[in-house]
Amino acid sequence: MIARARVAIGLVALALGGAGQAEPALPPPYAGAYQPQGVDEQGQWQQMDEEERKLAQSDLVIRDQALNAFVRKVLCDTVGPDRCGSVRPYILRVPVFNANMAPNGTMQVFTGLLLRVHSEAELGAVLGHEFGHFEARHTLERFRAARSSTDILAWAGVLGSLAPSYDVVRAYRNLEIALISNFYSFNRDHEREADRLGIAYLNNSSLRPQGAAQVWERLIAEYQADALSKGLKKPRLDRVPFYATHPPQVERAATLTLLAQPDAATRDDGAARYRAALAPWLPQLLEDQIKLNDFGASEYIIQSLAESGLTAPLWHARGELYRMRGAPRDLANAAQFYAQAIALDDTHAEAHRGLGLSLLKTGQVAQGQQALRRYLALKPDAPDAKLIGMMIPKEVPAP
To answer: Within this chain, do residues 260 and 315 fall inside the same structural domain, yes or no?
Structure first.
């Protein structure tokens, strides 16, 4: 799938290059963060600041200091310390691909984005794109256009009312639509301008700017995999609010390829640092993605993360994906995947749990109970310990 996406991007890049659009981009001089003008705008800025305070208290905000420091460093390394000083990033546990930025400097970074990018350069490309909207005053234009509405910042109330529980998993999809199609929807010219600014920041940084195009070629491949799993010939991006207002993915990937500084292709993209920073959170982010019940996309994401080999967390995630779909053959596959995870890490408690449940459902009772005993031995205080214990007969001590 990724190879097919690259061929399409290459063809479009040739066409765009022939049209004279191949000049690498550089950022303009920084004019500083925008300051509200007039009493009316200053009042609305105060309202936005108040909504940010509510956002900061939301249960969806991830407060892990190391992860927050890492994301902020990537942003600063991308746009530069002068621009970075005007941004206050918040990482939200929302398993969809997105980031956005409000006119007062509030940036939201969704965990679905963190799961899908593979390097500091790729994350910087998306964060730089959002900062481009901010610097070009696109968010301010949207703010002014909507300022007569009483729910300009209703998104913050929505975020504050949600908890990181999958009782509200369907609300994530609704949240994505509400966020992107309402306040943070820009027209395609704005998106193209933000793309140019985003790649310009990367060109001027120490990161590899070619990472920007890789984000979009991987998304193209993900949508193709998702469409294939649903029996569609191609993805229907026009039905997704975020992408209905964005330039076609192939076009933007090709444009970013052309605008990246050619002699910067050998720069470090920070992939190893990115994997290390995300490692403690990877199992949780994979679990959140799998619970969206989007099999094709989830399978693709797991496979794309396994470019250098499947690890125990990735084998476990694949087992969870197949077990949740639950067809007879899926359960047999899931058991194999859990076994692979255990072979790499016998202390992976959740892999023993998944293996035990899969084996029980396929009629392999003794083996399943043995796996569940191992799970409880590794994790005696597990939240589901009592439930799992009911599936295991008590062992009678030898006389």
So the answer is: no
